[in-house]
Every structure is written in C-alpha cells, then in structure tokens.
C-alpha cells in the first residue's frame, strides 16, 4: 500500500510541477508579448498569393504569383533602387485601406511602389534634397476606415523616421456604413484591434492551447528564426461570389438617409490622422480615393461590382445591395469632406477621384486598381510630390517639424483629439 501511495504522491507532484511550469511559461509569455509593437502584418511576413483565375481574368493576369513581403515593423516595404545599398532614403509612410494595400498586386506593382519608383526617377529632385533612394512603407489593410487609420498613424508612424506621409481613405468608411444598412443614427467607433493589426500589445489570450500567449510566442520565435514563406492558392473567389450575389440581388436600394453621421465620423478620423502625421513629418498628402462609379457604366462594368451590400458578402448571403449611383454620390461627399479638412489643417489635398477612366483596364472592381491603374496613379502622385521633395533638405527636414496649424474656428469642424 505504501508503494501505491508513493506512486500517487509522485504523480500528483509531477502534475503540480507541470501545471506550475505551464502557468509560469504562460505568464512570462503574456508579459513579454505586452511589449509587442503595433504591426499591421506579422514581423517579416512572407506570402505568395495565387489569385483565383476565373474571378480576376482578364483584368489581372490569371497566371501571376503575387509577392507580399513585410519588414520588421509589419509594413509592406519597397526600396528603390532595388538590390542596392541606400544610405539616405527618402522614407514614405503610406496608409489606408484595401485600395492602398493592393493585396492582389505584386510588391513592386502597387501604386505606392510606383510612386517611389517615379519619385526616384525625377530628375535631380531627390539628389537636390540629399537622398539617394526611396523607401516606401505601406501600412494598410483591407477594411481600415478613417478612425482605424488614425490609430495606425498614431502608433506606427512614430516608429520610423519618415520624410512624408501619404494617406488615402474613404471607401471603407462608406462601405462600413452601407454594410450596417445605412442607419440614420450611425455612431462609428474604432474596430477591434485584431481586425486592424496582426500583432499588437493589447491582444487578449486564453488558457486554451490554441489561444495561449505561449503558443503565440513560440510561433513568432519560429517565424523569426526561419522566415517561412506561406503559399495561398485560389485567393479572391469571394469577389466572384459577391458579384453573383449582386447580380442576383432581390433589391437594389436607390436612396439612403442623410449620411452626415457617417461623414462626421470620417472627418474625425481623418483629422486625427492628419494632426498626428503633421507633427511627425514635413509633408502630408491626402489623396481622394479613385473609384469606378460612373452614371454611364456599361453592363460589363457593372458586372465587376460586388461591394455595397446590406451585410458582409464575405461571410453571409446578401440579398440587398445599394445602387452604384448611391455609392458614387457617397464617395463624392467623402472626398469633398476630405478636401475641406485638408484645407483647414494646412496639408496637401490631391484630387485623384476622377483621374482614371471607368474601363476595366484600370480597375478590377469598384475601387481596386489593376497594374495599369496603379502605374497611372503612382506617376500622377509622383508628379505632384516632386516639387515638394526638391524643396526639402534632408538634415533640416528631419530635424525641424512643422508647427501645428491653428485649430478651426468654432462651428467649422468637430473638436477632435489625438487618440493614444
């Protein structure tokens, strides 16, 4: 009997030691992960995307493999000239939603990458300002609206010594409101951080194996040591599914309530983002988001639309969609509100909403660009930025930050503060 009791005590002790070690390891992992910076994508993330051929042909090359690489800060980075050591790069922070992320375009084919390449090729602009290359960091993710962008700018922009910030947002704010059914009493707030960032210090962990901090710490350590390359095939079939749902919709909604609550929330987010960026970089550029909507769209062009449903086309069957004319008018109002905010805050507004023609050569859906559309937009923005780059000198540009502009007078804009 004594041998049995000894064995029982030994097993109990072993279990207690194991549980104690597991709890200690979990506690240490949670403490360590609380120091994680905000990363839009995982550190040194490597992804190769094989788009769904039937969905994107012929607007996008169905046989291509999209390269998607992130740096230590979780940004999609492109350097120009590629493969060379750049001693003093002109660093661009580019923030926004899916139209900036360019998920289905290769690393070097996104419009921010084209912008960097075109800036580098501008005769003497960078050399005169003391730069020998361009580094473009894309901090963008699908679904990021103006309020989300303000959070991204607040927590990601200060971590790099950027020379300029380029912001483009609007579509996600409109779609978020329409997805909710365009409520008249809309009061938007910041989305869950897990929807904005892949890694951040506020993540909640559980005591299950799948949701534990210890498992996440091991995953990050493995990724840091091995830098795996992930492959995803037939990506984007949801776009084709959304197109079918829109074409078979039971109702096309042609009116919406007063969008003022949505536009006010959009303005608050944009103003926050601009104010934070203006404190950190010499130049801030805000782009009106190009879109595909036109009153004279052909049937083929309308077939490419899939957004604007009441409900999430990614996760549910949607039967009611808003008309293209409704979305076009909302985007016009959002861009106009953006222009007014830029004027009040003293930053550069770039009117690019009507830059591209509605033909599928430039867009593969309502506001996501093809490679050709990205070339056109990137070159257009580079033309406007060139004179600003030439007027800067690297040492003074980084040492001196512009003073905040005077706050707008009462009644001009809602009172906003920078969210931490």
Protein architecture, described:
42% of the residues lie in helices and 13% in strands. It is of the alpha/beta class and 420 residues long. A six-stranded mixed β-sheet has the order 3-5-4-6-9-11, sandwiched between helices. Helix 1 (2-33) packs across helix 9 (213-226) and helix 11 (260-280) runs parallel beside helix 13. The longest helix has 32 residues, at 2-33.
Topology:
Elements: H1 2-33, E1 46-51, H2 53-56, E2 66-69, E3 76-80, E4 89-96, H3 98-101, H4 111-121, H5 125-128, E5 133-140, H6 146-156, E6 164-168, H7 171-179, H8 193-196, H9 213-226, E7 230-235, H10 237-247, E8 251-253, H11 260-280, E9 283-287, H12 299-303, E10 320-322, H13 324-345, E11 348-350, H14 371-390, H15 394-399
Parallel strand pairs: 1-7, 4-5, 4-6, 6-9, 8-10, 9-11
Antiparallel strand pairs: 1-2, 3-5
